[in-house]
Structures are given as structure tokens and as C-alpha cells.
Amino acid sequence: MIGPPGVGKSLLARALTGILPGLSREEAIEITKVWSAAGRPTGGLVRHRPFRAPHQTASLVAVVGGGSDPRPGEISLAHRGILFLDEVPEFQKNILEALRQPLEDGVVHVARAKNSLAFPAKFNLVAAMNPCPCGFYGDSEKECRCSAYEVIRYQKKISGPLLDRIDLQIKVPRIPLEELRVRTSEAEKDASMGIKASIEGARAVQAKRFKKLPIHTNGEMSSRQTEELSALEPSAESFLETLGESRLSPRGYYRLLKVARTIADLDSVDTEAPTPHEGRGPDSDAKGAERDQGVGKKVSAEHLAEAFSYRLKEEV
Predict the structure, then answer these.
(1) Residue closest to 85 by CA, chosen among 69, 70, 103, 67
(2) Which fold has domain 9-180?
(3) pTM for this structure?
């Protein structure tokens, strides 16, 4: 998330924990084991997905893990949950670069002279940053005082390889005060509560899709699995042909497909779920059989276009 200071980036990150799907027993046991290995009391089986937000001054060992008596770091304590890095350019460069391998493999290896350990680290990375050192580059109300060189230098603190591993890159604009004073309607509250149900529905579709595979979510698919299970419509195939000049890396290409597959799964929950008024004719039976197989809705050009819109382009 990129935006000026005070617009609510940290608040949005913490609010994510409220829409994450509930823990399965297997996931709860995994998290409890990690926390126990780190010497953190849990008071029994962990019931909620972790949210970890290390400070910018944290050391490499504290974030990644290790030490003379190797223990899990923050990225492992965030296993099956969220790792939030606020003001991410202020973190040490070696810490940010050390995140690259765990983001790909879901595990961090700590090698020492006597032994080598592997700690699980399947976390959702959520990062927030200002667009420039003063924080107001591109802001509609306050003028930026930074030079073009300072803006570029600040943004380049996030390396291309790390940025390529971040699937959703969004700008968080300033909200006018008059909008903040408007009371939330009951309809908006109900819509917010329905987001978690949609996410859990999409996870159920993915659980059926991967019931014969040792993975649980779209993000865990390999490149071959992504090609085989994306189920692209002809319009989506045509859309991909237009991306030749977008300078997508092979990694970015497969991540784009995974995000589009997830957007289609969310769309499947909204459009394919049977309603109380839906008939049970041959057509509805066919749809039900497709859902039982975990196929979900096919990825369309619209799904791919939305996924592609989340990858920011350089503007400076």
C-alpha cells in the first residue's frame, strides 16, 4: 500500500485479520508448534491467525530467525497469518532481501555450523510505504518538497525482485474529512460482514480443486499447476497476447494468473452459489457437478485485467 502519511494504511492492514478465513485444526496445530519452538506461551491451541508487525529497527535474526540457539523469527511467527511491514523502505536492505526466498518457498532455512533447521513461513506479506521521503508526492492537498532524484532514490529502496513477488500493489488516497464524518449505514455494515463469507467460499472452492494435491490455496500452485488449473476462457487467452510489451517477468506472469484465478474463485462464490429460488433442473445439476469438482468459474479477460491493474507501473 502506497499513500501519504495518516490516510489509514496501518489501519487497513490490521483490519485484514477480520476477514481472513478461520483456522483449520491442521493450521492451528502448525502455528502452535512454531510459537512453542519460539518459546512463546499460547495457553493451548492457537485459535486466531497471527498478525506480526516488527519495528523497522528489528534485526535480521529477529525477523528471519536464527541466533546461537536458533529460534523462529517474525516471519515464522506470522505463519498462516499476516506479516505487516510499516514504512517498509526504512527496514534494513538485507532484511527485505531475505524475505524473497520465504515468499517463494513458504519456509526459511537457518544454517549453522552444527546443524541446519527449517522453519515454516507461509505468511501473507502486507507492506505500507509513503511515496517519497516527505510523504506527499502525488497528494491532492499537500505539495511534495522532494526533488525527483529523492523520490526515485526513496522508491528504489524496494528492489525489483522483491516488488515482483508482491501480487497486489495499490495506492491509498487521502479521504476527505466530510466522508469520514458520514455514519456507516447498516447496509454497508452487512456488506462488510459478507466479505469474510465470500473469502471462505472461495477457499472452499480451492479446497475442492486441490483435494488430491498437497496444497490448499492458489498461491501455493507451481508453474505447471497454474497452467493446468487456471481454466482460461478464449477472451483471457486473447488478453494475455496483448501483454507482450508489459515487461512481465515469468514469475510475474504466473503470479498474475494466480491472482486472476483467485478473483474468478471469488466471482464463483457470488454467481454460482445456488439460491433458495433456484430450480433443480439439468442445468443447475451440471453447475453443481462443476462446483463439486472444484473447477469454479473460468478465468475471463475481466479477471485478468483486474489482476493486472494491481501491479503498479513506474510513474517517476
Answers:
(1) 103
(2) Rossmann fold (3.40.50)
(3) 0.86
